[in-house]
Design brief:
Argininosuccinate synthetase, chain A, domain 2
Length: 417
């Protein structure tokens, strides 16, 4: 059997290469989908480990640009933060990775695909939902989920056969990508304990400050400049990678997320997302300058819906495309600049400017003078109109009290045993 394995180079997928080739007599090709977060040395090490474990071939696909165009640009446009804090760093990649896995399996004539997701996390749902949608006839093999070998069992199995064991990485599980890095395990299995300083990755020992100017065109970040920061790249992918590196050294982008998993249980992670933190803060403030209140109100609601569905593995659902079309229409005027101050691991947007500024389009000054042509009596009429429902509600209550008719009280539900 020819199997194409989604390969990250970690313990679960490394164990699978060896187990499938030796226990199942399968011909395994490993596929690493680069969504950011890997250095050149790490990519080479991943390739060498896959071949040493028994893979007949190792493939590497650079999906960073596709990830931005199809996923991250919408997370920015929708200002997505799960639980109002977490920018969906690594989970946002899974639907695209599953799609590329299916695409390559069809092109290469493979009999099946395999992934190393466990039964205890969200990724199994994301992979399976994506594959069921775009490639329902494809055979999917998931021994780590179905047989549930422990991580200690996997290490022991590899060691007994004198096969390379990936670095254990301590008691924490680290996943890095273009949109951030997540850290799970250890103290993250509690709801109260912080992550030790030495367990952080991109922001470890970070200190200092800087002021940046970030420029957007139609909602897409294009360039930035600032004291001590150098960006010589071109386009949003290189911009995000550069911000992750340089702002991460200042300690920017740390956070904790405690939330609901797709499986219905609570989960907690630490994350580092320097670029996401800066860009989301800057983008939201720029939107306040150029969009109407109703545009922002509905965008906030639909952005939460969009992010929740990405988290749940519904990347390929057609409703996501409908939401993206709405977001695209709201971004037409989100062009301009944001001045961002980084200090003490915090991000503060100090100011924004845009050729589509609604503030500049008015001669009013909040707290000082009304817009020309407006009438004080119009504002008085508006205030009284807005107050009318509450005034009538209060008056109805007073009339009821005078006639001795009190509002009906809800009756307690019977207690069943």
């Amino acid at each position: 059997m020819k199997i194409l394995l989604a390969y990250s180079g970690g313990l679960d997928t490394s164990y699978l290469v060896a187990w499938l080739t030796r226990e199942q007599r399968a011909e395994v090709t490993t596929l690493a989908v680069d969504c950011g977060g890997w250095s050149s040395a790490e990519k080479q090490a991943i390739r060498e480990r896959a071949l040493a474990l028994g893979a007949v071939e190792h493939k590497l696909i650079d999906a960073r640009a596709e990830l931005f165009d199809r996923v991250l640009r919408w997370l920015i446009a929708a200002n997505v933060r799960r639980g109002e804090v977490y920018p969906l760093s690594v989970g946002a990649e899974r639907g695209l990775q599953a799609e590329i896995l299916a695409r390559e399996a069809k092109l290469g004539g493979f009999d099946a695909v395999s992934h190393g997701c466990t039964a205890a996390g969200n990724d199994q749902v994301r992979f399976e939902a994506a594959l069921a949608t775009i490639a329902p006839s494809l055979t999917v093999i998931a021994p780590v989920r179905d047989l549930a070998p422990s991580r200690d069992d996997q290490r022991a199995w590899l060691a007994e056969r004198k096969l390379p064991v990936p670095p254990a990485g301590g008691k924490y599980s680290v996943n890095a990508g273009l949109w951030g890095l997540t850290i799970g395990g250890g103290s993250m299995h509690t709801s109260s304990e912080p992550l030790p300083e030495d367990a952080w990755a991109w922001t470890k020992g970070g200190s200092g400050g800087a002021t940046l100017e970030v420029e957007f065109e139609a909602g897409v970040p294009q360039r930035y400049s600032g004291d001590g920061f150098v960006f010589r790249g071109k386009g949003p992918v290189e911009l995000i990678e550069s911000l992750n590196l340089q702002a991460g050294k200042l300690g920017v982008g740390r956070g904790y997320h405690l939330g609901d998993t797709v499986l219905g249980i609570k989960g907690r992670i630490a994350f580092e997302a320097p670029a996401a933190e800066i860009l989301l803060c800057a983008h939201r403030e720029l939107e306040k300058l150029v969009l109407t209140e109703e545009q922002r109100f509905w965008k906030d609601h639909l952005g939460d819906v969009y992010g929740r569905r990405v988290h749940q593995g519904l990347f390929h659902d057609p409703f996501q495309r409908n939401l993206e079309a709405f977001f695209a229409s709201t971004q037409e005027r989100v062009s301009g600049r944001a001045r961002v101050k980084l200090a003490g691991q915090s991000v503060l947007v100090e100011g924004v400017s845009s050729p589509f500024s609604m503030m500049d389009a008015s001669d009013a000054r909040y707290g000082e003078r009304a817009a020309s042509g407006s009438s004080p009596q119009a504002a008085l009429g508006l205030a009284r109109m807005l107050a009318e429902p509450a005034k009538l509600y209060r008056r109805a209550g007073e009339r009821s009290a005078r006639t001795g008719q009190a509002p009906a009280q809800p009756q307690p539900l019977p207690i069943t045993r």
